[in-house]
Predict the structure.
Amino acid sequence: MTITATMVKELREKTGAGMMDCKTALAETTGDMNAAVDWLRAKGIAKAEKKSGRVAAEGLVAVVAGAKSAAVVEVNSETDFVARNEQFQDIVRRIADTALATNGSIDALASARISGGEKSVADTLTDAIATIGENMNLRRAAKLDVGQGVVSTYVHNAIGDGLGKIGVLVALESAGKPEPLAAIGKQIAMHVAATNPLATRQDEVPADIVARERAIFAEQARESGKAEAIIEKMVDGRMRKFYEESVLLSQAFVINPDLTVEKAVKAAEVEAGAPIAVKGFVRIALGDGVEKNESE
């Protein structure tokens, strides 16, 4: 009997086993789907099936830097205990290394061959679920590049080299000296970890967020009974405050609150010997946005 790609896909979705294991199982059972599931279970390969419904909101964030690029990934597990497992830590580091060689998308990363291994990232995680015994999930990944300059990294609540609870990338475009660039980049990355800005610049804040904030401020101002012309000025004032609190370059620099981040970058240009442009940043906090089932 011919084993089709559709059959392999269906069995993989049922069991969470790797593609080659699913193909072998179907070949061994002449295409019988139920028998193939049992075959995988008998081999211990489908151990991940019963784990797949459990919430994975713990785990690790990993960062890795190259010459002109850096990547950050989030790999979730069910318990913090697994985050201290050396096998899990090794897998997360290798996934981050793999992300550095991809375009930064989850799909590209999941299908790429994992660094130092023969299987894909997705299949490596499936195997780890079976051996470690917890559900795991490659949740997020990002990569930043610069033509010249640095991409600095920072890990908050680090439990190992490049591993922790919050991972940050900051891309600085500059022809300046590497050491001063690395120093200000690391400081900005630490700032981002602490303040979680919405955007790098004011014009990069999503329009829907701006509209929502203005609407809220306008409603608050109308409760004062002021005229519409006054209300508009009040809203503009509150929006300026909003940008100062939410936009990276406008925020008070946590290293020196007397300066904004933008002014701190300008000051760093003197030592770097060249203009510095903050190209962008990425901040990934472990489990951010994952709904945890507290009853489990």
